[in-house]
Design brief:
The structure holds two protein chains of two kinds. By secondary structure, chain A is an alpha+beta fold. Chain A contains two helices and four strands. In chain A, about 10% of the residues lie in helices and about 25% in strands. Chain A has a two-stranded antiparallel ribbon with strand order 1-4. Chain A has a two-stranded antiparallel sheet with strand order 2-3. The longest helix of chain A is centred in the first third of the chain and has 5 residues, at about 15-20. Chain B is built from 19 helices and 22 strands. Chain B has a five-stranded parallel β-sheet, with helices on both faces. The chains are: A alpha+beta, B alpha/beta.
């Protein structure tokens, strides 16, 4: 399941969102620190919107050009009905 | 109620779903079509980076010219317990070598040895069949195909989740409607021929467990017949981590044991033991559970040190990451005793077609695992069938373009399909389809419902299913993400009903369908498919005899070769 994205190093390219086959990551405009008071700059950054639906396919981590996505391999949301 | 609006896309051939079947169907349609033929492929996610094939090794069966095609065909038909379309399976196998060459033409590389021969290997449960996989596995396979489709002028629509097929003003299918899977924007895609390639439906269980097909159920609602609902792909898996390679581990000395330490597979399957075909392992596990001999384990302590690293390595990109990041303690556990149970992976329910992949409904074709040509897909035969049926369906779709009338949309129908999606949206509610899904999983994954079936238990499951459906009926989606999941869950609920009813209907045991109360294969009465048609909102079941033009059960001697079972007394 996806654990984290290092937003500080993210360039906002959006590849993680594009390749996710479970719609977990959405690119969103995020307000960042104002350089000039009164001017509110935004940056396009990935948001982990639906972590619980991550299928641990590692696509976001594999295709991230900055290597800043971390997916944990142990599956936590697998059904165990037996 | 949102005002009706949307985007209209026009095409000649529409391919729904971009796994191996869909990608090949689109390629085939483009190559077989006359100049200017418009081919469009849609998928809920990014074409080339989704579908089950993308996350697999992409092992595929290839029959080389010097192979014994007849023997391979025969063992695959026998391995399907004879519920397979013999002509279609034979066609798929016969063309597999040419398809390999097509894929190489798209710069997909397949490993060769120093003498230039393809590096192939046997696959579990089959003697003559050989499989191979491309360098880079499924991700490379799907991406090269996407690039190939782009180069040949196929229109690719990413992120369109198809929610309905259109009947239009004629007798056949005239395309599909769907929503953009992020924005929710409504799309209608008008097409003369529509190929459904949306895989089999899953209940979000094991492999790529959130990707599920819904196209088979849309086809059913649009008038197509379904078959093979009583069969499933249920394989042993551990709830603790993902592990591919049980078959090879067993060949290296791993074996299943029960809580008493007994090698139960030797008792249930004296000929093949732990090397039995996957459904037979699932059956044995279910009976052991019933006997109270669980928990069950895969004991890998006998796997020699020298080969252990092979099991924590993979050519599949995501599995490579997976194994690399697996915690040290889990790596150690892997070569001890790990709890295992039979995990339901997917149904085998597909659309009934002829051997040209045409359904009963004009303008509607099916390929890949959305097509019901075979119900047992050995490792490699899965994608082999997808490639073959995709190719055949694409060719048939193009042939149909001249025969089918120009598609004419029915405005009332399009508006009704739009309203159906719109009704399920409500910004004020919570996303709750996962609760229904968990109830459905608990029902459908239970060992004595999905693996070791019994008439009385199936009846009880249907009663429970009705309650789950009632719970689902009032749900709505606060956003598009949930709307997609809601629609998928709705399809799973219908699939569950068809599975349970078809399982009740087939009063024998065959392939992956095991009835405790009818525990023998009955060729005299059941060399048949169970076909399901929608009749005024109710499923109607009927037997269709399986034609055996190539070989019949009596012509194939039972396996005479007794495998040497490692470590067996």
């Amino acid at each position: 399941m996806i654990e984290s994205i290092d937003f500080g190093r993210c360039t906002g390219c959006g590849l993680c969102d594009l390749v996710c086959p479970a719609d977990v990551i959405h690119m969103e405009q995020v307000r960042i620190v104002e350089e000039v008071p009164g001017l509110a700059p935004t940056k396009l950054l990935p948001a982990i919107k639906f972590r619980e639906h991550c299928i641990t396919c590692f696509s976001c981590e594999i295709f991230c050009p900055e290597s800043i996505v971390d997916v944990h391999p142990v599956v936590k949301n697998r059904p165990r009905p037996w | 109620m949102t005002d009706f609006s949307g985007t209209l896309v026009e095409t000649d051939v529409l391919v729904v779903g971009a796994g191996a079947g869909g990608l090949l169907a689109a390629l085939s349609a483009k190559r077989h079509g006359a100049a200017g033929t418009r081919v469009t492929i849609v998928d809920t996610w990014l074409v080339g980076r989704t579908g089950h094939a993308a996350f697999s090794n992409a092992w595929t069966v290839v029959v080389e010219p010097e192979d014994n095609l007849e023997a391979i065909t025969r063992e695959i038909l026998a391995g399907n317990d004879w519920v397979a379309d013999q002509v279609l399976v034979s066609k798929v196998l016969a063309m597999s070598y040419q398809r390999l060459k097509d894929l190489e033409g798209l710069e997909l590389e397949f490993p060769k040895d120093s003498e230039g021969r393809y590096v192939r290997r046997p696959t579990r449960g089959l003697d003559d069949t050989r499989v191979l996989c491309p360098v880079g596995g499924g991700l490379e396979f799907c991406w090269r195909l996407r690039r190939g489709l782009e180069a040949e002028g196929v229109q690719i629509l990413d992120r369109i989740f198809v929610t309905g097929l259109m009947r239009g003003r004629g007798e056949g299918i005239v395309g599909a409607v769907g929503i953009h899977s992020r924005s929710g924007a409504f799309h209608a895609i008008k097409a003369r021929a529509t190929v459904v390639c949306t895989n089999a439906i899953t209940f979000r269980s094991g492999f790529v467990r959130d990707i599920t097909g819904t196209g088979t159920l849309l086809a059913y609602k649009a008038g197509a017949a379904l078959r093979n609902a009583e069969f499933s792909y249920t394989r042993p898996g551990t709830p603790r981590f993902y592990f591919e390679g049980i078959a090879f581990a067993i060949q290296e000395g791993a074996h299943f044991v029960n809580a008493k330490g007994e090698r139960f597979m030797l008792r249930h399957e004296p000929v093949w033991g732990d090397e039995s075909d996957v459904p037979r392992i699932a059956r044995a596990m279910a009976i052991e559970r019933q006997l109270g001999n669980d928990p069950l384990y895969l004991d890998m302590s006998g796997v020699p040190e020298r080969v252990r690293s092979d099991f924590i390595r993979s050519k599949v990109k995501w599995m490579e990451y997976f194994y690399r990041k697996l915690p040290a303690e889990t790596r150690t556990d892997l070569f001890g005793k790990t709890p295992y149970y039979a995990q339901n992976q997917m149904t085998k329910m597909g659309i009934r077609t002829d051997a040209a992949c045409r359904s009963d409904v004009p303008g509607l074709l099916a390929a890949g695992l959305a097509q019901a040509g075979a119900a047992n897909h050995f490792a490699g035969f899965h994608i082999g069938m997808c490639i073959g049926t995709g190719w055949i369906a694409g060719c048939s779709a193009v042939e149909d373009l001249d025969r089918l009338p120009a598609p004419a949309l029915d405005a009332a129908e399009v508006r009704a399909l739009f309203a159906d999606n719109d009704r399920a949206r409500n910004d004020a509610v919570q996303a709750e389809s996962d609760n229904v899904l968990r109830s459905l999983q608990a029902l459908m994954f239970a060992y004595d419902i999905s693996v070791w079936k019994h008439g009385a238990r199936l009846e009880m499951a249907l009663t429970r299913l009705a309650a789950i459906r009632a719970e689902f009926a009032g749900l709505a989606a606060p956003h598009t993400h949930e709307l997609v999941r809601l629609k998928e869950t709705e399809a799973m609920l219908l699939a569950a009903e068809l599975i349970l009813r078809a399982s009740l209907y087939r009063t024998e045991s065959r392939m992956s369908h095991f009835r405790e109360d009818f525990d023998l294969r009955d060729d005299r009465n059941w060399l048949c498919w169970v076909d399901i048609c929608d009749h005024q909102g109710e499923p109607r079941f009927e037997k269709t005899p399986v034609p055996v033009p190539i070989c019949d059960p009596d012509s194939v001697a039972p396996r005479s070769v007794k495998r040497v079972i490692k470590g067996a007394a």
